[in-house]
Structure formats: C-alpha cells, structure tokens
Amino acid sequence: MKNVLVISFSQTGQLADLTAQVVAPLRAAGHTVHLETLEPVTPFPWPWPIVDFVDAMPECVQLDPPPLKPTNIPNDIKFDLVILSYQVWYLAPAMPITAFMQSSEAKRLLKGKPVVTLVACRNMWLAAHDAMQGLIAHVGGTLRDHVVLVDRGHALATFITTPRWVLTGRRDRFLGLPPAGVAPEAIRQSRRFGHALVDALANDREKNDAPMLSGLRAVEVNPRLAMSERAVRRAFGVWSRLIRAFGKRGSWTRRPILLVFALYLITMILTVVPISLLLQWLLSPVLRPRLERMRTRLERPSGSQDFNLHKYEQ
User: Fold this and answer.
1) Interval 236-280: pLDDT, tens
2) Domain formed by 3-225+293-312, architecture
3) Closest by alpha carbon to 241, among 70, 61, 85?
4) Are 32 and 1 in contact (CB under 8 A)?
5) How far apart are CA 138 and CA 98, in angstroms?
C-alpha cells in the first residue's frame, strides 16, 4: 500500500468533485490518502464581487499570492505520489495553489516525488499549466501526468455563462445557453484516472519516468484556442504590471485603472477573441500542420489518445 498526498483548492466545488472521483478508487484499494484543502488567511469571496474579481488579476498573473493558513499534513509520512488539484484564474494557477508551491513545505513534500495535476476549468489552461510545470520543477518534483476537464459549451457561450457563474454563483441554463462548467457525467467518468493510478501504484510505475495515465484521454488541446491564449496572456502580463504600479491589491488607488482594465477585458472578449478564432478558421488549411504539431506538444505528458479507455471506463 502506498501513501498519496492530495493538495486541493476549489471555490465552486466542481474541482472538489473531480478530485473526489479520482481519489475514491485509491482509497477503495487500501492506499492511504491525505487530502489537504488549502485555506488562505483571508478567504477569497464566492461568488466574487466584480471589483474584487478584477482586482485579483495582477497578483494572480504575477504569481504573487497572499499567505495561507498552516496545513495539517503529517510530518512523519513519506508520500509516494502527489496530486495537485488546482483552478485556473486569469490563465494562471489560482493564488492558493501558487502560495503553497512557493512554500518551504512544498519543497519538502514534493522534492523527488512524482506529481499528477488535475484541472477543471472553462477552456483556457495552457499558460497555467506552463506556470505549474515551472513551480513543480522549482521544488524538485516531477510532473508525470496532467488531467484537464473543460466546459464543452461553445467558446462564445461560455464567455457569458462562466462570468455569470463567477459573479452570481448561478450556473443553470441561461438565455437558452447550456449550464456553466464541466458536465457532471464527465466528472463521474474521471474515476477512470483513479483506477489507472491504482494499477500503476500496484506495479510501482510511479517510480518510472513515464506517464501513468496514457491512453485515457486525459487532456485534449484545441490549438486554435492555444493561439488566442498566447495573445491574452501577453496582454494580462502588461496590464498586471501597470495595475500594480497604482498600489497594492485592495487599495483605492487601483480602482480607476481597474475600471479601465475591466472595459478593456469586455471589449477584448466581444471583439478580439472572436476575430482571432474566425481568422484561424479561415486560414485552417494553411495552419493545419502547425496546429497539429502544437497539439501534440501541448498534450504531453498524458495525451489525448484513448487506447486504454476500454480498461477503465464504467
């Protein structure tokens, strides 16, 4: 039997549901699972007031999070596997998980350990994944697998349903649009990853330098969204530095520039992103080889193949 450490932070409960599905088979198989839910010293609001939501962007993008409450992770357990379950905020890992990853405790717990990351988000997660890979490497861990569940609604629809969920807490059908978030059935089916990890641990595969969740459709990349995400990420980088020049998070001196940023963000969502997607669609015959190479690279390490699905789908 192995010891598994799970580090999680979920505001909406969606990511907590995904984590529970993955962890359940591990516990049923007799493995010891320590689930640690991160708690900021000052809790983040849910649902978010619009001003607080926009004000969180600069520190989130710059990986400059507030402090956490002490964890309850035992000091006398040697963990064989670490699972990091995190949200994506502003194309970056949510601040509580970056706070943990920059702590001395993360370096102690993750050094030399295989790591699996779990994400449930709208649809743009690549920049956050890149940042998380860097944080894992910095503390000496090894990313072995990456699992991503996304909202399957149309990209333009989720520009409405996701902000509504974040700002009001409501995710039901709205104006004929589908519910926000990852479909409950997709979350239920994510139990397959837990079963695959049970088999991997039984055969000591966590000690090998190879993915444990290959062939399970762990991550699917839309390369067209990846190109749009690059442009948005660069813009967020510029805006985050500019806003921070006006003061610290929560200060009144930032309010005017936050208003300008909010107007920019709405304009970008309504114009720049749709135009970018349209241009990529029109140029798809020319861009297809490049996009396929990008897809293959970005889907590592676990990949979108499905050759093992028949073993674990229920």
Assistant:
1) 999 999 999 999 999 999 999 999 999 998 888 777 777 777 777
2) 3-Layer(aba) Sandwich (3.40)
3) 61
4) yes
5) 12
pLDDT in tens, 157-215: 898 999 999 999 999 999 899 999 999 999 999 999 999 999 999 999 999 999 999 99
Max alpha carbon distance in the chain (Å)? 58
What region does 219 belong to: left with phi over 0, alpha with psi -120 to 50, or beta?
beta
For residue range 9-47, what is the model confidence (pLDDT) as tens digits? Answer: 999 999 999 999 999 999 999 999 999 999 999 999 999
> What residues pair up with 36 in beta bridges, in sequence order?
7
CA pair distance 144, 149, nearest whole angstrom: 17
Give the chain as a 3 state SS string: CCEEEEEECCCCCHHHHHHHHHHHHHHHCCCEEEEEECCECCCCCCCCCHHHHHHCHHHHHCCCCCCECCCCCCCCCCCCEEEEEECEECCEECHHHHHHHCCHHHHHHHCCCEEEEEEEECCCCHHHHHHHHHHHHHCCCEEEEEEEEECCCCHHHHHHHHHHHHHHCCCCCECCECCCCCCHHHHHHCHHHHHHHHHHHHCCHHHCCCCCCCCCCCCCCCHHHHHHHHHHHHHHHHHHHHHHCCCCCCCHHHHHHHHHHHHHHHHHHHHHHHHHHHHHHHCHHHHHHHHHHHHHHHCCCCCCCCCCHHHHCC
Which pair of tokens denotes residue 256? Answer: 């005017």
| Domain layout of the chain by residue ranges | 3-225+293-312
Structure tokens at 74: 């035992």
Q: How far apart are CA 56 and CA 54, in angstroms?
A: 5
CA dist., res. 66 & res. 116, Å (int): 24
